[in-house]
Specification:
Helix content is 47%, strand content 17%. By secondary structure, it is of the alpha+beta class. It has one domain. The protein has a five-stranded antiparallel beta sheet. A hairpin with a 3-residue loop joins strand 2 (31-36) and strand 3.
Length: 205
């Protein structure tokens, strides 16, 4: 959650490019980079005078410019998902060393905790995608404290931390599938035994 590798992208300094009427070959001098996470990030500004690095933090300053409620909800969803994942892991260990005797400890309980943990991860991932795609999160961050220059997003892509959350939700779904499969009672295959004929000679022997 704390690593600033949720989103990366390329930003164009539109104001600088418009001032010099830059064409395609010259636009390279006005294209910078941006990366950010839930708490911090950074960008490289390219406005025709070379790259200038800057770092920023989401809290407490930038949160006023973003959709505060949505951003805080993402963090809360992930914290709750981590809590339920730990609870699920604890009960899985309990089930492994002890015979389940309650629904909250047995297969039904394992399904419940995995469903809750995976559900909150899905909510967090969906909320983050909504913040990026619907609320222009990258563009708002790129233009934070920019009074003269205006930046336009050319490209943005989800990075490792985002895909780890997606993989986590997938793992919980696989757990639910494995629990469901383990509850199926498959018919046992019995081998046919040959009938033994006992004769009088066998008895005497």
């Amino acid at each position: 959650m704390g690593i600033p590798k949720w989103m990366t992208g390329k930003i164009l300094c539109k104001t600088g490019a418009d001032l010099v009427n830059a064409t395609d070959p010259e636009l390279v001098k006005f294209i910078g980079e941006i990366y950010y996470g839930l708490f911090r990030g950074g960008k490289i500004r390219q406005c025709g005078l070379g790259g200038r690095r800057s770092k920023f933090t989401i809290f407490p300053h930038m949160v006023k410019k973003l959709n505060t409620g949505l951003h805080v909800m993402i963090i809360i969803f992930l914290c709750v998902a981590i809590f339920f994942s730990l609870v699920s892991f604890g009960f899985c260990i309990l089930n492994a060393i002890k015979v389940p005797y309650r629904a909250i400890n047995g297969p039904a309980g394992a399904c419940l905790w995995n469903f809750l943990a995976g559900g909150f991860v899905v909510l967090a991932v969906t909320s983050f995608m909504a913040a990026v795609k619907l609320h222009q999160l990258t563009e708002r961050i790129a233009n934070f404290r920019e009074n003269i220059f205006r930046f336009v997003i050319l490209e943005e892509r989800f990075e490792d931390c985002f895909w780890i959350c997606v993989a986590s939700a997938t793992a919980h779904a696989v757990n639910l599938l494995l629990i469901a499969i383990s509850g199926i009672h498959f018919p046992k295959i019995k081998t046919k035994t040959e009938e033994v004929n006992v004769t009088a000679e066998d008895i005497m022997y």
